[in-house]
Amino acid sequence: MSTMAAGLAEFVVIANRLPVDRFIAPDGTVTWRTSPGGLVTALEPVMRRKGGAWIGWHGAPDEKLKPFEHDGLHLVPVPLSAQEVEEYYEGFSNGTLWPLYHDVIAPPEFHREWWDSYVQVNQRFAEKAARVARRGAVVWVQDYQLQLVPTMLRELRPDLRIGFFLHIPFPPRELFQQLPWRRQILEGLTGADLVGFQLPGAAQNFVRLVRERVGHKTHRGLIYLPDGRSVKASAYPISIDAHGFEQLARTPGVDARAKEIRESLGSPKHVLLGIDRLDYTKGLRQRLRAFGEIIRDGSIDVDDSVFVQVATPSRERVDQYRLLRDDIDRLVGRINGDVGRIGQQPITYLHASYPREEMAALYRAADVMVVTPLRDGMNLVAKEYVACRYDDNGALVLSEFAGAAAELRQAYRVNPYDINGMKAALLEAITADPRENSRRMKAMRKHVVDHDIDHWATAFLDDLTAPSEPHDKKMRPPGGS
Ligand code: G6P
Description:
Layout: E1 9-17, E2 20-24, E3 30-34, H1 38-50, E4 53-57, E5 68-70, E6 73-77, H2 82-101, H3 112-132, E7 133-142, H4 149-156, E8 161-165, H5 173-176, H6 182-189, E9 194-197, H7 200-214, E10 217-219, E11 222-224, E12 230-235, H8 242-250, H9 252-264, E13 270-277, H10 284-296, E14 305-312, H11 319-339, E15 347-350, H12 356-365, E16 368-371, H13 380-388, E17 395-399, E18 412-414, H14 419-431, H15 434-450, H16 453-465, H17 471-475
Parallel strand pairs: 1-4, 1-7, 4-6, 7-8, 8-9, 9-12, 13-14, 13-16, 14-15, 16-17, 17-18
Antiparallel strand pairs: 2-3, 5-6, 10-11, 11-12
Helix pairs in contact: 2-3, 3-4, 6-7, 8-13, 9-12, 10-11, 10-14
6-O-phosphono-alpha-D-glucopyranose binds at residues 16-17, 36-39, 143, 167-168, 314-315.
């Protein structure tokens, strides 16, 4: 690999997870599985193109592994102990930050020992990157699990160019300020030369918090540090390998599988689809209720319509996720019991994760894709659906609280908290004139194809590596702070 000469990388990505998870079966056999979530979907094609090293956790506790090559990627595992998985990953990352950054949909918990573990693990990631990166290398830190890494890494390696990208929303100030360690998080991020967010509002929010809480001077998207450095904060809406998804969707195997899926559902008139990690931010309950109600009201017939909901298992040891699973199991059972008929279950619920080919077949099989998060940084499933609809048919129902809503403007927009509004949008999408859906899909496809993952990575990395303005000018921003 050209960027890995002498064992040191000139391009390094650091994320909590590696693109593959080490899975140990009960009989002891070890296999590697694609890691869950949008971050991996987005970054994998970038790394494939650029080369370099990917530093991350391999998904199993208490195991130290050597760096290895997997499917053309150079992977550098970082070990986590069972206690760190509990305190840093399930605890501070997913019991504190995740709910706090997603509008406190679930109550965040604040525990000092979780914070201590977060600091310790962030330090380990920073030290690993410091050993792997070549002099002057570009290091790109990803997501909420690693917000302290930029400053920790800069202390170890001031020669590096450091970028940070937050894949999830950045919370409103009122919520962020609940965090007992708010200042440390802000100072951790300002170690980067460039801090990227999904939406412009998040970047502005961050800059304002740095000014108010840390006391640095700022001007527009720039933060001026006392040591003469400046940090840029800006929005870079993430995307997918649109071409790759379209190619996959066009393969005869996927096409045949899509037909087979529709047949096994009883060849209904309307197939609606949801694909999400099983997460309380995704609005699963609201969407299933809305669907159940339009059948109960008689607006659509149970013989005509099926909702396929795939819920990928996620963070299963975290309490809120356990509760959610039981909740959704019960709700699906109740709706199918209430409005189903013999041989006609309105909801087909699958608690499983599937390979990309099967996802593409599901996208091809669905007339209406239903993406209704209560809050979501971007939501790449919405973009994947659009990319797979190469014949410009199908309809997308999209929550206005997904980052993707800012770009996919021709979707049927919903407020997922408004069940009646959601029922109306589902009906509108189901019954729309196919020409209307085609007009909408064409516009969305053009956007996704023009703004694909390469576009995202290039925009971020060009800004990260652009030469900084002279320092003196920046210390005296026009009009003060
Ligand atoms: C989201 C986050 C990622 C995370 C993924 C899967 O997409 O932004 O950082 O990796 O969810 O969650 P998990 O906890 O399984 O890594």
